[in-house]
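All the exercises in this workshop are built on plain-text protein records. Sequence and backbone structure share a record, each on its own labelled line. The question running through the whole workshop is how a given chain folds. The record below serves as our worked example for the rest of this section.
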Amino acid sequence: MISRVADHCFWTGRYLERAENTARMLEVNQTLLLDFAVPVNQQWKPLLIISGIHDTQWEPDGETVQNHLTWEITNPVSIASSIASARENARNIREVISAEAWERINHSYLWMQSAHARKLYQVDRSAFYSRIKRINQLIAGISEGTMSHDEAWDFIQLGKYLERACQTARILDVKYHMLLPTPEHVGTPIDNAHWVAILMSCSGYEPFRKRRPGSDPGLAVADFLIFDSSFPRSVRFCLEKCQQAAHSISGRPVGQPGNEVEHALGSLVGWLNLIRIADCVEAGLHDALTGVIDRIHEIGDAIDRTYFDSQAGLSRT
């Protein structure tokens, strides 16, 4: 596979995942604010930080943040921008993805440009975000059932799970760095609501309750979202999927890294397999999560250097 095609496959998977993640965060945050009186600094600004937007020239109120993360086409993490970028990447690789997958991606892009999408956004915000999530889940299901699981598929999975791992780590990092309540708030309904919101942002509330019945929110949630080996949005699970995809591309067995990407993924997965949540807390959970995020970014850079022509393709963020 030539590097240009691999590049587009990787970013198709990554942008589709990004659109779903953004929709899920916005929906959960809106619901949380309806149910609880959340302090102003804990309402909408954290969503910008999770998305990598740290400095804005405007006050991050609800409508402004939702519009910026939904419709702003110049914002590379907005839903509209992510779906448009996914569609543009997919358009360039129509020869390696299935016709059904392309038609669904293109249909989703056209729907986002329609008056119907704008009307649904204005009338029923929750239904709009749910629609975006279903769009991505439908594309994922169609792609899995209609595409050959070859190199193109492996690069799509690599982009998808790398984006997902980074998002989960960012959500937890913001919780501990910015949203962590003062000691007298620990265990209160508002503190528990934040933990439930984090689980829901990662579609993890039901799996958490089934796997850990009776567990109190807090470190149990952090442990679940970082280290759980079977939950499909935990950091560990996602990075193991990235590792499997990278080794499938090279044909080398997992555990026998042969390039920069495989070495970086093997090192980070090995660290996650050895460390415990108590070790992270003792060393500083914020620092540990920041380190994981930085290493995921380094893996992304290594993927670009190893597989892609950095002078070709679309602008990437």
Summary: The CA atoms of residues 83 and 109 lie 6 Å apart. The chain has one domain: 3-307.
